[in-house]
Amino acid sequence: MFDYIKNLFSKHKQEQSLVAILDDSRALFSYGGQNIYMSDFVNNCIDKIATEIGKLSVISVVEGSESVKRQNDEISRLFRYKPNPLQTTKDFLACCEWLRRKDCNCFIYPEYEWEKASDGSYFKYYTAFWPLNPEQIEFGVDDSNNIWEVKFYWRYGGYDIVPYRDLVHLRWRRGKNTIIGGGSDNGMPDTRELSQSISALSNILETVPKSLEATLKINGIYNAKTVVDKDRLEKIRTDFENHIASSKMGIVATDLPGEFTPVAMTPTHIDDTVMQFLKNIIRERYGISEAMLSGDYTAEQHGAFYQSCIEDFQTEFEQAMSSCLFTQREQDVGHRIKTYYSKTAFMTNQQKIELATLGTNAGLFTVNQILEMFGYEPQPDGDRKLQSLNYVSTDIADQYQLKLNDEQKGTQNE
Fold first, then answer.
1. Across the chain, which distance is largest between two alpha carbons, in Å?
2. Can you name the residues that pair with 162 across neighbouring β-strands?
3. Cβ distance 253 to 243 under 8 Å?
4. What is the rounded CA–CA span in Å between residue 349 and residue 167?
């Protein structure tokens, strides 16, 4: 896998250093904050978001002033099933979000070949999209000070330098740094307060089982009433323990001379508000509610989750992909990458009925699209749209109104 990726970058020139853009004369941005991702609670938050983002549909379109036309090009074809030989579209999108949330930056390399058009010009034909997982990165410019480049240090060793214009760069949590995401002004993930909350939550989770175990170990104190030697005392204790172990009703029958004093061990009680407070701090960082994390959410709660988590990724992904994959001329005529997220699956049946009614009245949905909303199979003749006769096209609205007025006047004159 690494050799394959390395071969993709072989056409880019190798340099030993980049022109520095930081005060310390080294343009190094080291990924950090990895310790917090040892927490299952943090990973659960990211996994929930990444799973939902994996449900996005990615297509290439040409956006006009009055229409959006889907393009059946290689980009739409790749994202229909597998953007690269190793990942489905769902895996690819979820992977991008995991990298974006963990490293606060995600780099995607579009693999391409140069193709010759009929007019003799050359264009990029995209063959795969690869999410990159470097150990460290450096930003800088080449020796001519004209081309921005990124130097990737790989976990297996070695590095590659790639022009920034050939990369799709997704960021999360911005600070004053104008290039890198992360939250801190130096382009590093800022996880100080989050680490404290995770540490406190971890300590609580470790304390509870230890406290419970302690209450089960010490049940009381047995005092022998006769003066005996050490070996005899040990035998008395062993016999007493055997009597306790053999008791099935909680009653101990023994003729051993001695006295048993029960000791009440109260397990440590952790207030629910403390647990909720710590969990809320972690959830707020990722913009996900308790209801979404547990899966017991309403349509309104899912709408809030969409706006805080999914929509942010959609905007970032669409803009970054469009600016990288299309030339300036293609962008000027409307070429875009668009993502779509079906929200009907999270609506109540009543909300679906209202949407279907509105869609059919206005001629927006086909019969099969309405059937899909309610989980039914498509019908052979279902790819047709229905529209209420109570609605009229805006193109002929004036003519329709004038015709009605003329008919009304004619009726009055009669």
1. 130
2. 150
3. yes
4. 43
